[in-house]
Amino acid sequence: MGKRILLLGAPGAGKGTQSKQLAEKYDIEHVTTGDALRANKDMETEYGTPRSFMEKGELVPDAVVNEIVRAALEDADGYVLDGYPRNLSQAEYLTEITDLDAVLYLKVAESELVERLTGRRVCSECGTNFHVKFNQPEEEGVCDECGSELAQRDDDTEETVRERLSVFEENTAPVIEHYRDEGVLVEIDGEQTPDEVFDDIAATIES
Ligand code: AP5
Ligand code: MG
Ligand code: ZN
């Protein structure tokens, strides 16, 4: 059976960057509520569209994301879960539907997070992440992987970034404490280079 990895971290901590590589290395699914919601931004739900929450930096209602995760995990032989759970009620739901082999927390200071997010550029086709300073593409505005155009995410403006960070503090920090209390949380220094972060994660998973 494939490994079941939970990757926790604030907005901009590097969850997406690391998950992409982890999914390749361990041949597991990258399950990310953020990407799933972005692909279905205008889907009508009884609560409104995902877009109406995401553009403000707020959480999409639990019922919507729980169902996305349930369906994705059901089909996966091993996964790295990125962007979920984001509050204690989602964490409780996750415990009901799966066991985990590793719970990792990518720790990065808030000032660094703001710079990472406002400078992020994302490939409009394949989703690869770049950064105007920390992770430049070979040609400005063009994806190294597939040659498509890079764009800024709608929620990466400074104002929305601040809101996302405050939603994280209020709702998701308690989730991290919950796993710490259970004794399963491994903290990773997320302020190293992406390759160093990856090496630390891989070492933890294999230990
Ligand atoms: P989501 O898409 O999950 O966004 P997020 O949690 O805010 O995290 P990000 O994707 O912004 O950051 P990341 O940690 O993936 O960092 P990345 O690798 O890109 O969620 C978006 C929205 O969807 C939420 O606000 C909410 O509305 C909704 N949503 C999602 N899940 C939900 C849930 N469970 N419940 C309810 N609502 C939900 O890296 C960031 C930048 O830094 C990049 O430019 C990258 O190149 C750079 N970088 C990465 N690593 C490093 C490094 N080591 N050093 C320097 N730069 C680095
Ligand atoms: Mg991400
Ligand atoms: Zn691309």
TrEMBL record:
A GO biological process this protein is involved in?
A: AMP salvage
Q: Does the keyword Metal-binding apply?
A: yes
The answer, when asked if Zinc is one of the entry's keywords, is yes
The entry's Zn(2+)-binding residues are C123, C126, C143, C146
Q: Where in the cell is it found?
A: Cytoplasm
CDD domains attached here? ADK
Q: Which reaction does it catalyse?
A: AMP + ATP = 2 ADP
Q: What is its EC number?
A: 2.7.4.3
Q: What are the Adenylate kinase active site lid domain coordinates in residue numbering?
A: 120-155
Q: Which PROSITE patterns match?
A: ADENYLATE_KINASE
**One term of GO molecular function:** zinc ion binding
Report residues binding AMP: T33, R38, E58, L59, V60, G83, Y84, P85, R86, Q90, R153, R164
Which residues does ATP bind?
A: G12, A13, G14, K15, G16, T17, R120, Q192
Q: Which Pfam families does its entry note?
A: ADK, ADK_lid
Q: Which GO terms describe its cellular component?
A: cytoplasm
Q: What is known of its domains?
A: Consists of three domains, a large central CORE domain and two small peripheral domains, NMPbind and LID, which undergo movements during catalysis. The LID domain closes over the site of phosphoryl transfer upon ATP binding. Assembling and dissambling the active center during each catalytic cycle provides an effective means to prevent ATP hydrolysis. Some bacteria have evolved a zinc-coordinating structure that stabilizes the LID domain.
Per the entry, what this protein does is: Catalyzes the reversible transfer of the terminal phosphate group between ATP and AMP. Plays an important role in cellular energy homeostasis and in adenine nucleotide metabolism.
NCBIfam families in alphabetical order:
adk, PRK00279.1-2, PRK00279.1-3, PRK14530.1
Q: What is this protein called?
A: Adenylate kinase
Q: What is the organism of origin for this protein?
A: Haloferax marinum
